[in-house]
Amino acid sequence: MDLRELLKKGRGQLLDFMPQPEADGLAETLVAFANADGGTILIGLGTTGTLLEEVEPEHLEAILLRAQGICRPPVQTSWQPLETGHGTATAISVPRSPQLHSLADGRVLLRSGARNRPLSGEEIRHLASAKGAGDYELETVPGATLADLDENLLVEHAEKRRLRGPRGEKLSDKELLANSGAIDEQGRVTVAGLLLFGRHPQRLLPQSGAVLVRFAGTKATSAEGLPGYVRREDISGPLGQVIETLWNTIWEEVRHESVLSGLKREDRPEYPLFAVREAVVNAVAHRDYRLSGRRIEVRMFDDRMEIISPGGLPGHITLDNIVEEHFSRNPRIVKSLFYWGFIEELGLGIDRMIDEMIQAGHPAPRFEAKPFTFKVTLRNVRERAVSKWAEGLNERQIKALTYLQEHNRITNREYHNLCPGVTPETLRLDLADMVDKSILLRIGYKKGTYYILK
Known about the structure:
By secondary structure, the chain is an alpha+beta fold. The chain folds into four domains: 3-119, Schlafen, AAA domain (Methyltransferase, Cobalt-precorrin-4 Transmethylase, Domain 2), CATH 3.30.950.30; 138-203, no CATH class; 206-379, Heat Shock Protein 90 (2-Layer Sandwich); 387-453, Winged helix-like DNA-binding domain superfamily/Winged helix DNA-binding domain (Arc Repressor Mutant, subunit A), CATH 1.10.10. It has helices at residues 3-9, 23-35, 57-70, 121-132, 151-164, 173-179, 191-197, 239-253, 273-286, 331-340, 349-359, 395-407, 412-418, 424-436; strands at 15-18, 39-43, 71-72, 78-83, 88-94, 102-103, 109-112, 115-118, 210-215, 229-235, 256-261, 264-269, 296-300, 304-310, 366-370, 373-379, 440-443, 450-453. The strands form six sheets. A six-stranded mixed beta sheet has the order 10-9-13-14-16-15, with helices on one face. The chain has a four-stranded mixed beta sheet with strand order 1-2-5-4. A two-stranded antiparallel sheet has the order 3-6. Helix 2 crosses helix 3 and helix 5 packs across helix 10. The longest helix is centred in the middle third of the chain and has 15 residues, at 239-253. The protein is globular and about 75 Å long. 32% of the residues are buried. The mean pLDDT is 88.
């Protein structure tokens, strides 16, 4: 485990700092990490990496035992020393748990960004249901053997993991397969293993491919009621290949325009590239592979692109909290795609997808969740007008919209600079009002919060 790499990430979805450990606070973070996607707790360190207190192993073990006694059931952990140059800190690793954990007082916490958030009763039921369904990616695939795995992909994955994974990690081939969830304890190939490293995954998991359809116009049918598509591509292979092939096929169909920027002429695609790629990667990483008979679909129209993923939203995730919250249906697949470089940073893709669309002058992506599908719609129209929202807003809010029209985002500090002499609480209520009216979308948390046009 490399301390410098951990410090680069900072406190967030997968990392927390506890300079002076105490049982109650430690128990809360253990439960929150275990209920989400796991994480690491750095004991004795401040957020800058400064060693504030060197905790003796015996003392830490006693605190950890007391914390475990507060967790229901106890949370699995492992820990290791970290040399800082000024002493020794400790990293406590918490894996994602297949069980729902609570505290002794009944609270159920979930890691949400940089905080441990208590869940409501309805959220607890959704999370319990998701965990109760088990991890399909870890189920074994009848008929699959180690011979079905591509040795070249395994070598490539090992090399990528050395670059992006824990520094100094040394795993044998079998340990790497087990650590990535590709095989179970008996050495049998799992769903994750076949999807990530299989030579022909669709032979045993036919639902794991994708299909791209390019339509002529803005409707799926022609004026005569016949299918209106001009191109259809069926895409198969391991997940990394599905992502790359799907992306390359989309790129072939994306229109480009020449834009004069200063004295140079630039080629600009009709969609921000990161937003499209993120939507494709999310569909592959987070779909419900338990659902047979349906593949990922990309539908391209003249005015929009639709990326449809089988399976509803996972766990406690809803359309209301999809920007702020994070929960993976397939955490081993997600982690492997991160090592491969398809995912830039865990838990931040939706934020940036929205931001990239807004920055390019497009409407924010539209998310639609149904029990068995999740759809992302990206529109290629660029819009800048905000006058239609001005009715019913005060002068300060209209000033904020004008600023957003030019700068694409606004922070609390920037709003205060626009409206000097107005109390911070009044400005906070202004922004909250525009969020409630679906004019603005709030992105980020605490000091990192900013607002964009929705």
